[in-house]
Amino acid sequence: MTTAPATTVPTPTATAPAAAAPAATAPQARAGDGASQPAVRVRGVRREFAGREVLAGIDLDIAAGEFVALLGRSGSGKSTLLRILAGLDSDATGQATVPERDAVVFQDPRLLPWARVLDNVQLGLRHRDARARATAALAEVGLGGRERAWPATLSGGEAQRAALARALVRSPGLLLLDEPFGALDALTRIRMHSLLRDLCRRHRPAVLLVTHDVDEAILLADRVAVLTDGRLSLDEPVRLGGARHRADPTFTALRARLLTELGVVDDEASEGDGHQAEYC
Ligand SMILES: Nc1ncnc2c1ncn2[C@@H]1O[C@H](COP(=O)(O)OP(=O)(O)OP(=O)(O)O)[C@@H](O)[C@H]1O
Ligand SMILES: [Mg+2]
Predict the structure, then answer these.
(1) Which residues form the ABC transporter domain (predicted)?
(2) Distance 163 CA to ligand 2 centre (A)
(3) What integer is the mean pLDDT of 217-221?
(4) pTM attached to this predicted model
């Protein structure tokens, strides 16, 4: 994108150089110039489709290592924003500064069926030791020993682990997750939450997680934002420590607040443990 007055949103380099982390920015400015510079800086981003405005001026900062969850009703524009940050949409306007390297994980793991798991993970990786890195990434997500497996032989959770390995092996400064656990069963989802939390602690990318699961957002994120009518109508820090429990009053209060913002009347919001709050 450019910083020019008639702004276009950047096309962050998905094929960024293999060098170490410093964030690059679109357009040709580099993020990370100052210690206080966020990894992601979005200002006035707009997107319309056929004259219908879906994003009406988004402002959002994400610090390096910060985990932001994005909620919003179906069709509110969450994936549209994520695609813009991934450089997959060149028709948006506004300004977005993003790290040089990003990685995206979608609900569908999108593994190439004709390539073995290890080859999927190292696909496009230009390091001399790509194979070793990919092997290590697979071990990190609990798929050590499955390098030669075909994608079709993986369970849904395993395939999504492979997709996470493929993302993290690139050492992204920004990890974009679009409902990555939406297709998984509840138990697998819990395990994936724990895995993702560990991976993010270790690798410290800035993270934007799009989800419909309010509990998932509170369990994982440092901040939760809500997209309503093309803008971020709420952007709340999650004031909970490392071990998060649904029964914690801070948890239930934030949950109720988010559900209200989403227009959901949730009778069980104060009942605590075990209740999964999803909306659509
Ligand atoms: N390429 C496109 N052409 C036309 N309309 C589009 C296009 N992409 C998205 N839209 C529209 O923009 C709106 C926002 O779509 P988007 O996929 O961002 O929603 P979302 O918040 O991710 O929804 P969901 O939670 O269902 O995934 C929708 O009304 C959608 O139909
Ligand atoms: Mg979507």
Answers:
(1) 40-254
(2) 18
(3) 96
(4) 0.87
